[in-house]
Design brief:
Layout (H helix, E strand, L loop, with lengths): L7 H26 L10 H54 L7 H21 L1 E2 L2 E2 L7 E9 L5 E8 L21 E3 L3 E3 L3 E6 L11 E5 L2 E5 L8 H15 L4 E5 L6 E6 L6 E6 L2 E2 L3 E2 L4 E5 L10 E6 L2 E6 L6 H15 L4 E7 L6 E7 L6 E9 L19 H54 L3 H27 L10
Antiparallel strand pairs: 1-2, 3-4, 5-15, 6-20, 7-11, 7-13, 8-9, 8-12, 10-11, 12-14, 15-19, 16-17, 16-20, 18-19
Helix pairs in contact: 1-7, 2-3, 2-6, 5-6
Family: Belongs to the bacterial flagellin family.
Subcellular location: Secreted; Bacterial flagellum
Function: Flagellin is the subunit protein which polymerizes to form the filaments of bacterial flagella.
């Protein structure tokens, strides 16, 4: 049946053309945007995933900027610490030169002062955007990553970079928990008198047949039969003279005033024990202890940031406050630098470690040129402000022989601290570079993932565009033919 009111063919052709036009519009949008999923209506789930990933990419861009800023700051700090190391090495050269007798120590001291001032200038200027890694001890947190869990929650990761204080700050002694138990002095006073042991000659009215050998500090003094004459007292006097004639540094002998057959041997060596043994006579000890008094630091106690120790010598006190990550070694060496810098007449120091227990010991000696005896004490307290890594730099003084000798031991500690700081900065730089490289690769991977989700396949889209354009032309022709079909009914009325 034919109808002029209802054209089914035209309706079908029209619906088909509408569908083709709709598909063609989508293809044209895809071509113009380059995306197959351009909005939530295109594919809600894919669009949501892509937007979350795009937000992460934006976040990683900020992280990359943060890492770049930290790298720049570290580059400045590393360069400064290396410069400080070079300047300290120059100072050591000056200190070595000051060990000679025939040099102008005052001029050398002026050079050291100029180099020290330059070091302070370097550490003060070593900042980037206001951040100075060479001052203070607080860590700096650098944003390094965004971590998205499987449930969608996001957390941030940071890289902690420790400051390396290369200032000469004295720090501030605290008033917190007592640390007195961690440091034990051997005596309450440091005196100039040496330590003694004795050798006793056995009673014998005729010593001519006796053989006696005495070993003092590795030097052997031997008496064969016939070398000694008289009784034991006369032999003691002969041996005493022979010991003194050896000229062993810091060692003297004298016949005991109350017991004539006893030889008192005294050592004034500051930081060295003197071995003693005898054959044919009796030695009271196997060694004569060093003159210096000792302060033993605990081999088991931990050292926390702000732990301070103070040594009192006579009426003066000398303090060192430990910083983050330091040990009893740093405490002992810091106190040595403090005491040496105080230039107490006749007082010298040394630091040693027991090879068996690992215990660190500060030794304090008094040669008596200032005072025959000085009080000695040590206290400790937590809660202070740490001394700088170059503590003692300000007090280096080579204008005297004793000062030059003390400075030679302390400068190596300062150089070691600056070298450690430069090494720490180098390690941190390497970590930041690795993280920055990883963030760059991760961002690229995320961008590629987003592209695989929403980007259009342009080859396929191009082919589909051509196909739809052909379909559109055919649809138009089909609709035209369907619209012409009712005209055939007119022929029935002719």
């Amino acid at each position: 049946m034919s109808s002029i009111l209802t054209n089914n063919g035209a309706m079908v052709a029209l619906n088909t053309l509408k569908s083709i036009n709709s598909d063609l519009s989508k293809v044209q949008d895809t071509i113009s945007t380059g995306k197959s999923v351009n909005s939530a209506k295109d594919d809600a789930s894919v669009w949501a995933i892509s937007k979350v990933m795009e937000a992460d990419v934006k976040g990683f861009k900020g992280i990359s900027d943060s890492l770049s800023l930290a790298e720049s700051s570290l580059a400045v700090a590393a360069g400064a610490s290396e410069t400080v190391t070079d300047l300290l090495t120059d100072i050591k050269g000056k200190i070595v030169a000051a060990q000679e007798e025939n040099v102008d120590r005052d001029k050398i001291q002026s050079d050291i002062k100029a180099l020290s001032d330059q070091i302070k200038s370097v550490t003060g200027a070593a900042q980037f955007n206001g951040l100075n890694f060479l001052e203070g001890s607080d860590s700096v947190e650098v944003l390094s990553s965004l971590d998205r869990a499987s449930d969608g929650t996001v957390s941030v990761s940071n890289i902690a970079i420790d400051r390396q204080d290369l200032t000469a700050s004295k720090g501030t002694f605290g008033s917190g928990t007592s640390l007195n138990a961690n440091a034990t002095p051997s005596d309450t006073a440091v005196a100039s008198a040496g330590n003694s042991a004795n050798v006793t000659i056995a009673t014998d009215a005729d010593m001519s047949d006796n053989t006696i050998s005495i070993d003092i500090a590795g030097t052997v003094l031997s008496f064969a039969a016939g070398d000694l004459a008289g009784d034991q007292d006369a032999a003691a006097a002969t041996i005493t003279s022979a010991i003194n004639a050896l000229g062993i540094e810091g060692v003297t002998a004298a016949v005991n005033g109350g017991t004539a057959n006893q030889i008192d041997i005294t050592s004034t060596r500051a930081f060295e024990d003197v071995s003693l043994s005898a054959t044919g006579a009796t030695a009271s000890a196997t060694e004569i202890a060093e003159r210096a008094e000792t302060i033993d630091f605990s081999a088991s106690a931990s050292v926390n940031d702000g732990d301070g120790y103070r040594v009192t010598i006579g009426s003066s006190s000398y303090s060192y406050v430990a910083g983050k990550g330091e040990t009893m070694e740093d405490v002992a060496k810091g106190l040595k630098a403090a005491i040496d810098g105080g230039s107490v007449d006749g007082v010298s120091t040394s630091v040693t470690q027991d090879a068996t227990t690992g215990q660190w010991t500060l030794k304090v000696d008094n040669d008596g040129s200032g005072s025959a005896s000085l009080g000695l004490g040590v206290t400790g307290a937590a809660g202070g402000e740490a001394s700088g890594g170059l503590f003692g730099l300000d007090t280096i003084d080579v204008s005297s022989k004793d000062g030059a000798k003390a400075a030679l031991g302390n400068i190596d500690t300062l150089i070691a601290n600056s070298v450690d700081a430069a090494a720490a900065f180098g390690s941190a730089q390497g970590r930041l570079e690795t993280q920055s490289d990883f963030i760059g690769k991760l961002s690229s991977a995320l961008k590629a993932g987003i592209g695989s989700l929403v980007d259009a396949d342009m080859e396929e889209t191009s082919a589909r565009l051509q196909a739809l354009q052909v379909q559109q032309q055919l649809g138009v022709q089909s609709l035209s033919m369907a619209n012409q079909a009712p005209q055939s009914i007119l022929s029935l009325f002719r």
